[in-house]
Amino acid sequence: xxxxxxxxxxxxxxxxxxxxxxxxxxxxxxxxxxxxxxxxxxxxxxxxxxxxxxxxxxxxxxxxxxxxxxxxxxxxxxxxxxxxxxxxxxxxxxxxxxxxxxxxxxxxxxxxxxxxxxxxxxxxxxxxxxxxxxxxxx
Length: 138
Fold this sequence. Notes:
By secondary structure, the protein is of the alpha/beta class. The chain is built from six helices and seven strands; from the N terminus they run αββαββαβαββαα.
């Protein structure tokens, strides 16, 4: 069974919950990624911050990205996957929650991110089509 740990991108960079959205935007650009996990001082995952969140929830609302904290954009409990969970569980979670990126946790520690592309590379072709269809229907 292929696990999240085997296909994830390790060493995911967090944005601190107390860092500003402007700092998050700079980090997104520097890393050339579309999302960052939001981590608290307790090293626990607080949520995910996407480039779309910055546009829709900050810029479009006329808020100052230099004043809004990343933690303010974390909504509810973060959708995650366990490091030893299999591809089937990853697929189910992505489909059920309509997310394209899943933080991978081991205990409560963030150990990586599994993206839609990571899953697609690990699956036989028919399952890739099912994943893309499930994520596109939301």
